Amino acid sequence: MVMDFDSFMSRFSGILSNVNDFVWGPVMLVLLVGTGVFLMVRLKFRPLRNLGYALRQVFSKHSIKKEHNADAGDISPFQSLMTALAATIGTGNIVGVATAMTLGGPGALFWMWISALFGLATKYGESVLAVYYRQQDQKGEMSGGPMFSIKNGFKVKWLGAILAGAFAVFAVIASFGIGNLTQINSIADAVLGTFNIPTWITGLVIAVLVGIVLLGGIQSIGKVSSKIVPVMAVFYAAGCIIVIVLKLDSLPVGVGQIMDSAFSPASVLGGVTGFTFASALRFGVARGVFSNEAGLGSAPIAAAAAKTDHPCRQGYINMTGTFFDTIIVCTLTGLAIAGSGVLGSLDASGEFVTGASLTIAAFGSVMGPAGSYIVTIGLILFAFSTILGWSYYGEKSLEYLTHSIRARYIYRAVFAGIVFVGAITSLKTVWNFSDTANGLMAIPNLICLLVLSKVIVQQTNDFDEKFLKREKMMRRQAKHS
């Protein structure tokens, strides 16, 4: 008996869903967080101890002004970070936080913080390796990331070739899925629901805008990202702060629930929602890693393009992406939800309100209908920037596989065209497939971090002796003069 198409797709979707649950299951989460813990300890907690230094580096003259920077690279360190943040700060900061707090309870936010703190070491390490092992391509641009770190760093060359190729393949797939289709679909649905604009119009407009930006390559992506990312982050953060301030009386209760739920072995919130320590830990870590991408190996591709005088300087700059994404933006979303009192509320069908709807409900509790506009605009900006950042990741990964300049331009055209397709297509199967590819990227990257951890430590020690100690001393002298 021949299986009809709908039955086949239903079964295929179920298989993908099971694979995806395994890929993003406890084993992977332990590996992701465990690698961060291992690197943090081996680096003697320097990523955490030097966080203040890293944040100052982000906004330094050397970081922002590319024209005053004679170091090797294609874009300024600041533009490199903004490109990475463009891909990192996305729907996960609005939808992911709300989903984590619905499925795992308010305590999930606490475990997002913990995963982010150790994620600083992971993001630092993978960025250091990306700059250290980067190389120039046929056009004279810098290419780097886990595929080059594995290829150039592994002593067992055949194993390095397999792992590097696997990472690049998964990254290309993920760029079309997580980095494109799911992002534009979120934009189109939000615009349809809030402004009643047909999805095909949204898809066409965004596709044209993406195509225009991609024509200029990394230079154009870096310039656009350096403008749009700070604006969108400040815009959304301001909305969250308004909600938090206007619900300040309820905030202590919300924070109390976060801490109680984070450690309680039994359910909290009166037992209505059944949140437990296990669920808070699982969903907090999962959504935290999914949001800041520490350990997935994506952000180092952008780090490799930076004009910098030492791999560790860009490592410190790029690791702040995890701080900005999770400690700042995700925290603001979580506090707005916790303080508003909407967590655990039910919709008309009796289901828990979750995702973007929960964040909209939190904003709407103090702003009314204007709250949905703010969240929708935030989603549009976040998802659009993610599309731009991931286009660069996918292009560089494809370039590693093909070594063809023509393939680069074909990829850009196809990528922009897929934006339109994603706006008008149902994406459940595609979401699972691309989400799985996104998670599989982490496996070769984590192996790379563990195998080459000695190189990370050596480079960090070298940077300490050549730059960090002297710069900290000069800062102290300037402060007391």
UniProtKB/TrEMBL annotation:
Transmembrane helix listed as a keyword: yes
Molecular function per GO: amino acid:sodium symporter activity
InterPro entries associated with the record: Na/Ala_symport
Gene Ontology CC: plasma membrane
Membrane topology: Multi-pass membrane protein
Localisation: Cell membrane
Gene3D superfamilies, per database record: Amino acid/polyamine transporter I
Regions crossing the membrane: 22-41, 84-104, 110-133, 154-177, 197-216, 228-246, 266-285, 323-346, 366-388, 409-427, 439-457
Family matches, as PROSITE patterns: NA_ALANINE_SYMP
Family the entry assigns: Belongs to the alanine or glycine:cation symporter (AGCS) (TC 2.A.25) family.
Protein name: Amino acid carrier protein
Organism whose genome encodes this protein: Christensenella minuta
